[in-house]
Design goal:
Glutathione-S-Trfase_C_sf, alpha+beta, globular, Glutathione_S-Trfase, Glutathione S-transferase Yfyf (Class Pi), Chain A, domain 2, Glutaredoxin, 4-stranded mixed β-sheet, Glutathione S-transferase family protein
Length: 215
C-alpha cells in the first residue's frame, strides 16, 4: 500500500508552504519516498471518515500499511526513524536532533501561532492594539535565543536533520509578520532550508494544488 497523506483541498495560505502538510511532504521528499495525496475539504475534515484518522479534524494525516498517524512532529519522526537522511547515525546526535524537533513545535511555534491568531483573528478587537506588541515581543524573545544558539553554524547540530526541517517549517510561519527579517542569522537559516531540492519539490507540489486554474 503506498503512503497516503491528506492535505487541504484549498489551503488557507494559497499554497505558500505554510500549511502543515508541507512539513510531511518535505520529509518524504528528503527520504526519497513516493506518496499519494488525498485532498480534503474543510467540510470533510469534520466528518466521521476524516475524524477516524485525525480526532481533531485537521490535516495532515499519514497512512501506510494499516498505520494511521496524525500530528506533523510524530509523522516526520516516524519517517526519519525508518528511512535514512533525516537523523544522524550516532545515538547521541539522533537524540539531539529529536530534541530540536520537540523544541520547534513545543517552544518556538506556540508564540508564533499566538501571533498569527492575534494579527489575523483578533486584529479587530478593541484590546488588540495593546496586546499585539506583547505577543510580538514573546516571539522576538524566542528568536533571539535561537539566533544566539545558531550563531554562524549552518544547521542546528551538525548536518541537516529532521530537527532543522521542523524548525525551518515553524520559522516560515513568522516571516509574513516581518519579524524574521529582524534576525539575519535566522532568515539565512530559513533560506538554506528553502534552497534544499527536497523542500523545493514539496513546495511546488503544494502550490500546484492551490494554483488558480488557467482561463
Amino acid at each position: 500500500m503506498p503512503i497516503t497523506i491528506t492535505a487541504f483541498e484549498r489551503s488557507p495560505d494559497g499554497g505558500k508552504g505554510l500549511a502543515r502538510d508541507t512539513r510531511v511532504r518535505w520529509a518524504l521528499e528528503e527520504a526519497g519516498l513516493p506518496y499519494d495525496v488525498r485532498l480534503v475539504s474543510f467540510r470533510a475534515m469534520k466528518e466521521p471518515a476524516h475524524l477516524a484518522l485525525h480526532p481533531f479534524g485537521q490535516i495532515p494525516t499519514y497512512e501506510e500499511d494499516g498505520l494511521v498517524l496524525f500530528e506533523t512532529g510524530a509523522i516526520v519522526l516516524y519517517i526519519a526513524q525508518r528511512h535514512g537522511g533525516l537523523l544522524p547515525e550516532d545515538a547521541n546526535a539522533r537524540a539531539r536532533a529529536v530534541a530540536w524537533m520537540f523544541a520547534a513545535v513545543n517552544t518556538v511555534e506556540p508564540p508564533i501561532l499566538e501571533l498569527v491568531t492575534a494579527r489575523i483573528f483578533e486584529g479587530d478587537k478593541p484590546w488588540s492594539k495593546d496586546r499585539l506588541p506583547l505577543v510580538e515581543e514573546r516571539v522576538r524573545d524566542r528568536l533571539r535565543q535561537l539566533s544566539a544558539y545558531l550563531g554562524d553554524a549552518e544547521w542546528l547540530d551538525g548536518p541537516f536533520s529532521a530537527g532543522d526541517l521542523m524548525m525551518v517549517s515553524v520559522l516560515l510561519r513568522v516571516r509574513p509578520s516581518g519579524i524574521l527579517d529582524e534576525f539575519p542569522v535566522l532568515a539565512a537559516y530559513v533560506a538554506r532550508g528553502e534552497a534544499r531540492p527536497a523542500y523545493q519539490r514539496a513546495f511546488a507540489a503544494q502550490l500546484a494544488v492551490n494554483a488558480p486554474p488557467h482561463p
